[in-house]
Amino acid sequence: MTSDMVAVDQDLVELTPAELKELEAVLTGGRIDVVTAEATKSSVIQVKGLSAYFGHKQVLNNLNLDIKEREITALIGPSGCGKTTFLRTLNRMSHSVPGFRHEGEVSVMGQDIASVKDVESFRRKVGMLFQRPNPFPMSILDNLTLALRLFGVSKKERLEIAKAKLDEVGLYEDLKDRLHHSPFALSGGQQQRLCLARALAVEPRILLLDEPASALDPKSTRMLEDLFMRLAEHMTIVIVTHNLAQARRIAKRTAFMEAGEIVEFESTHALFTKPNDPRTRVYVEEQIG
Question: How many domains does the chain have?
Fold first, then answer.
């Protein structure tokens, strides 16, 4: 008899490893510890004691959180609380602003961002989509292939990647005959999906989203949300959103920020239904009510 077979009334019943572990616990009176896929996910972003300043003004105060791989994490909170600054710190965009500095540790994919020398290669793995669509003033195809050309990808492969990413965001059929046209004739939703395809073309491991649907209609918003949920099957997504319903729909975990601090960081369901901090409860009730 193999280790994953159990004899029951002379018949062999095949059990999964988890079922064998549970049976063993029942027979021995032991405690059942089931290790789920969620529990074994590693942290791809680790933040310890992060404080940030623009000149003498402090904008982030002692942030601590771990962001898991292949999940969507939402950042919510009132305007001006530091959400976007924190997001842009993760891929060193905040560092390009004169007077910006940070204290504490920010590790992204195992690398301290303070030690990053090749920022452009780093950002290839940490893509970003902004609040408003920002296509480049060049053709649709060139928007998708510019970065690839800079990274030395061959012309044939650039074209294949461009087509694949347009198809991934649901635009290829609409745009396959307009690849050499300007992107500014597209609708806002199409432009944002084009920018998403452009970010995906360089195969990032992490995608940072700064209110990516705030300027879009409900149909385009839901289309983007569906895309984000599919993308989270193989990449990590961090999204800043003022749309609490959006956070509830797509995020596995949510952080509530206020005055440059993380007030609470929990599973999205727990944060919205049973917040631990009264400040979270007040914010959620005001935004929803």
Answer: 1
